[in-house]
Amino acid sequence: MSRAPAAAAIAQNRFGLGARDADAAIADPHRWLTDQLDRYDPRPAALRDQPDGRALLLAYGAVRRDATTEAERMTMRQDANQAIQAAYRAAVNARTAAALATPTPFPERLVHFWSNHFALSADKPQVTALAAAFEAEAIRPHLLGRFEDMLVAVAQHPAMLYYLDQDRSIGGDSPAALRAAARMPARRRGLNENLAREILELHTLGVRSGYGQADVTAFAEALTGWSVACAQEDTPGQFLFRAGQHQPGPRTLLGRRYAQPGVAQGRAVLADLAASPATARHVATKLARHFSADTPPPGLVTRLEHAYRDSGGDLPTLYRTLVHAPEPWAVPDRKFKTPWEWLLSSLRATGRQDLGTMQVAALMTQLGQPIWKPGAPAGYDDVAAGWAAPDALLRRVELAPRLVAPIGDRLDPVALARRLLPGLLAPATEQALARAESRASGLALLLVSPEFLRR
Fold it and tell me: Is-contact 56 87, C-beta < 8 A?
């Protein structure tokens, strides 16, 4: 196996989103990747004309306020839901179009990585309306910044606040809670710990990192008041701190006392969590798993952890550490593609630029990985065991002929495979492609070949 062609293929497939037939040859794979960090556009053209998620959100919220009869309420809610679902489908297609057209596939992959790290699930209308905005506003602008800044943007984004019911969380001794208790003693609103728990367990420290239930409760109290402005307020659909819902007083979290007033208390906790050695190790482990192997190499995890701590959580420092580490380049085709990765790489490989009538949201549901809908805050699996089951592979086999149908017999599958996977194509795979009954059949076979299914 030639090392240089294999390195180019790893750069395009493991670090990028899949090779394209029209791509120029890569002379220096490491530089090809790091140069992309300087050219990254957080607002690619494909995403600039999307429906306004907040307008959809406000229309949905207006149903309860404006409907005068039950029949009218049902009609308005149905119309609002249909508009939200149509906007969701358009946003998934736009995300796909951005991935196909991007000149910076390495940063684009990182957008998808962080969106899954800070996962929400678009199972409620409010979250579905804002899912695309969450990625565009909380992830993309902070991709080349500090981890702390992305963490704060995520924690304060209305989509995350709605998803984890943070907008319903009220401090038990807050003015709002005391007033509500006086009016309706039997219906006391109280603390919701969802956001605090997921930030600790999934976004920052990780499981078994030393925090306990008392820390979760203290953090949840620090976050009380973090909410979303409604239609009658100055910034509808935006983050709003409601001082009247904040649990008053200082609190202790992980042995540290926080006496800041109001919104500053939660911000102070987030800053300390972002600076924690446990967070450095948790983030390093997830990056190493994504870019190297399902069982993260300990040496790579350690180097990434040190890079995080030494740089203060500077994300480009972590990305460059990944690119220049030997482990992601050492053994080809170790990472099994998720359905999203497989679909993107298939479309890129076959030269698709225009999605036409393709509805990617429906295809991703068919493949078992609906976009922004993992069903749980942990996000989608990043290991082969989650995606390599026989029934999951059968879905790809069934879809592959549909993906290559627009191409017909224009492309030679063997020649294309050699260009897309230089230095990685096994003789048995090349022979199978050459023996296919037609070029179209050979292309479909290429998309489900062992080499193409991995990155």
Answer: yes
CA R_g for the chain: 24
DSSP H/E element including 113: helix 105-117
Q: How crowded is residue 17: how many other Cβ atoms within 10 Å of its Cβ? A: 23
Overall pTM > 0.85: yes
Task: Give the CA dihedral 80, 82, 88, 92, nearest 10 degrees.
Answer: -160
Query: What residue spans of 205-257 are helical by DSSP H?
Result: 213-222
pLDDT of residue 64: 75
Q: Are 135 and 42 in contact (CB under 8 A)?
A: no
Q: In this structure, are residues 114 and 139 in contact, taking their beta carbons and an 8 Å threshold?
A: yes
> What pLDDT sits at residue 23?
87
**How confident is the model at residue 224, as a pLDDT?**
98
Cα gap 212→200, rounded to integer Å: 10
Contact 245, 262 (CB under 8 A): no
Exposed/middle/buried for 24, CB within 10 Å: 0-12, 13-18, 19+? exposed
Q: Which residues of 80-119 are buried (b: 16+ CB within 10 A; e: fewer)?
A: bbebbbebbebbbbbbbbbbbebebbbbbbbbbbbbbbbb
Alpha carbon distances (Å) from 182 to 175, 178, 188, 192: 11, 6, 9, 20
Residue 83, classed as helix, strand or coil, is helix
pLDDT at 2: 42
pLDDT number for residue 24: 85
- Nearest partner of 273 among 288, 290, 258, judged by Cα: 258
What's residue 1's pLDDT?
40
Q: How far apart are CA 256 and CA 240, in angstroms?
A: 26
- Total residues belonging to the chain: 455
Residue type, 361: A
Phi, psi (5° rounding) for residue 252? -115, 130
Segments of the chain with pLDDT less than 50: 1-2
Classify the C-alpha dihedral 206-211-217-221 as positive or negative: negative
- The Cα–Cα gap between 176 and 211 comes to 29
3-state helix, strand, coil in the chain (%, to 5): 60, 5, 35
What does each C-alpha distance from 410 to 23, 99, 345, 430 come to in angstroms?
A: 18, 24, 19, 18
- Which positions ≥6 away from 242 have C-beta within 8 Å? 176, 225, 227
Give me the amino acid identity at 83: A
As a whole number of angstroms, the distance between CA 166 and CA 259 comes to: 21
